[in-house]
C-alpha cells in the first residue's frame, strides 16, 4: 500500500515539476513558476519520507536509507530557496521533471521492464562467464519472482547449497540513467554537447551497472565474504532473516553501493569538462549541503 501511494504521489510531483518548467518559459510567469516548483519540492519531501520505512525495513539498505532520509529536509530546504532566494534551482526542478518522465513510464510498461531486466541479465551472464564463472541463468519462476520466459536470475550451486540472485528493475541502472539524463537534458546548453554527454554517460552508467550486478552475483554465489567479522557486521547492521546471505549484503549494500556513489562523483567531473553549464547544478547542490558558495568552474 505504501509503494502504491508513493507511485501515485510521484506522478503528481512530476506533473507539478513539469508545470513549473512550462511556466518558466514565459517571462511574465517566472514568479508563478517558482511558487509551483516550491510546492512540488514540498510534495517531493513527502514522497521521500514515505519511502524511508521501505528501504530500512524491507530493502535493509543503510546507504539508501540515509540518502533518502536526508532528501526529506533537503527537499523542504529547496522548496524555500527556489521560491524565495535562489532562482537557479529551477534548473534542478526542471531536471526532476525530466527524470520522472523518463523513469515513471518504465514502471508502468511491463514489456519495457522485462526487456531491461533480460538485457542486464544477458550481459551480466556474459561478463561472469568471461571471468571464468558459470552461473545458471534462470528464465522461469523462482522463490523471489514469478517472471517467466526471459532471463532474470543467476543461480550458483556450491557444495550442494543454492545461491540465487534475482535481477530486478532496480538492478538495470535505469534509476541512475534517468537521474543523469534528466540533469543533462534540463541544462541550457547546445543540443550537440548535451547529446554527446548523453552518449558518454548512458553507456558508462549501464556498463558499470553490469559490472556491479556481476560482482554481486559472483560474490554471493561463491560466498566471498562469509568470514566471522563480516557475519557479525551484517547481523548488527542489517539483521538478515536468511542464512548464507552475508556475502550478498557485503557485496551489494556495502561495497557496490559505496562505489556507486564514487562512480557518480567521478562521472560528474568528466561531464563538467564537456558541459560547464552543469556547474550551476553542482554549485547549487554544494550550497544545499554546506551553506557555502563554491566556484566549480573547470580550469585548464
From TrEMBL:
Q: Which UniProt keywords apply?
A: Cell membrane, Hydrolase, Membrane, Protease, Transmembrane, Transmembrane helix
Location within or outside the cell = Cell membrane
In chain numbering, the residues marked as site (Transition state stabilizer) are 253
BP-aspect Gene Ontology terms = proteolysis
Spans traversing the lipid bilayer: 6-24, 36-56, 62-82, 89-106, 163-188, 195-219, 254-275
An example Gene Ontology CC term for this record: plasma membrane
Lipid bilayer topology: Multi-pass membrane protein
A Pfam family matched in the record: Exosortase_EpsH
The record's annotation in InterPro entries points to: ArtA, Exo/Archaeosortase_dom, Exosortase
Residues of the active site = 171, 212
Gene Ontology MF, one: peptidase activity
What the entry lists under NCBIfam families is as follows: exo_archaeo (TIGR04178), exosort_PGF_TRM (TIGR04125)
Q: What is this protein called?
A: Archaeosortase A
Source organism of the structure: Halarchaeum rubridurum
Amino acid at each position: 500500500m505504501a509503494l502504491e501511494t508513493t507511485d501515485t504521489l510521484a506522478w503528481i510531483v512530476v506533473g507539478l515539476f513539469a508545470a513549473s518548467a512550462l511556466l518558466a518559459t514565459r517571462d511574465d510567469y517566472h514568479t508563478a513558476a517558482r511558487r509551483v516548483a516550491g510546492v512540488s519540492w514540498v510534495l517531493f519531501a513527502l514522497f521521500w519520507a514515505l519511502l524511508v520505512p521501505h528501504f530500512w525495513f524491507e530493502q535493509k539498505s543503510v546507504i539508501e536509507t540515509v540518502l533518502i532520509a536526508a532528501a526529506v529536509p533537503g527537499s523542504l530546504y529547496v522548496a524555500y530557496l527556489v521560491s524565495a532566494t535562489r532562482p537557479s534551482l529551477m534548473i534542478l526542478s526542471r531536471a526532476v521533471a525530466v527524470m520522472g518522465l523518463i523513469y515513471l513510464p518504465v514502471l508502468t510498461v511491463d514489456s519495457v521492464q522485462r526487456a531491461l531486466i533480460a538485457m542486464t541479465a544477458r550481459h551480466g551472464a556474459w561478463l561472469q562467464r568471461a571471468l571464468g564463472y558459470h552461473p545458471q541463468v534462470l528464465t522461469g519462476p523462482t522463490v523471489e519472482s514469478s517472471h517467466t520466459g526471459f532471463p532474470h536470475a543467476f543461480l550458483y550451486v556450491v557444495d550442494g547449497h543454492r545461491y540465487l540472485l534475482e535481477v530486478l528493475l532496480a538492478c538495470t541502472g535505469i534509476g541512475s540513467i534517468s537521474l543523469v539524463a534528466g540533469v543533462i537534458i534540463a541544462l541550457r546548453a547546445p543540443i550537440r554537447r548535451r547529446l554527446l554527454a548523453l552518449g558518454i554517460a548512458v553507456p558508462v552508467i549501464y556498463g558499470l551497472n553490469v559490472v556491479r550486478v556481476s560482482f554481486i552475483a559472483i560474490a554471493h554465489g561463491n560466498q566471498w565474504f562469509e568470514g566471522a567479522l563480516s557475519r557479525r557486521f551484517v547481523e548488527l547492521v542489517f539483521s538478515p532473516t536468511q542464512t548464507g546471505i552475508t556475502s550478498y549484503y557485503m557485496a551489494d549494500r556495502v561495497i557496490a553501493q559505496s562505489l556507486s556513489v564514487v562512480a557518480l562523483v567521478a562521472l560528474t567531473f568528466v561531464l563538467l569538462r564537456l558541459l560547464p553549464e552543469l556547474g550551476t547544478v553542482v554549485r547549487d547542490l554544494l550550497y544545499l549541503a554546506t551553506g557555502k558558495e563554491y566556484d566549480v568552474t573547470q580550469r585548464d
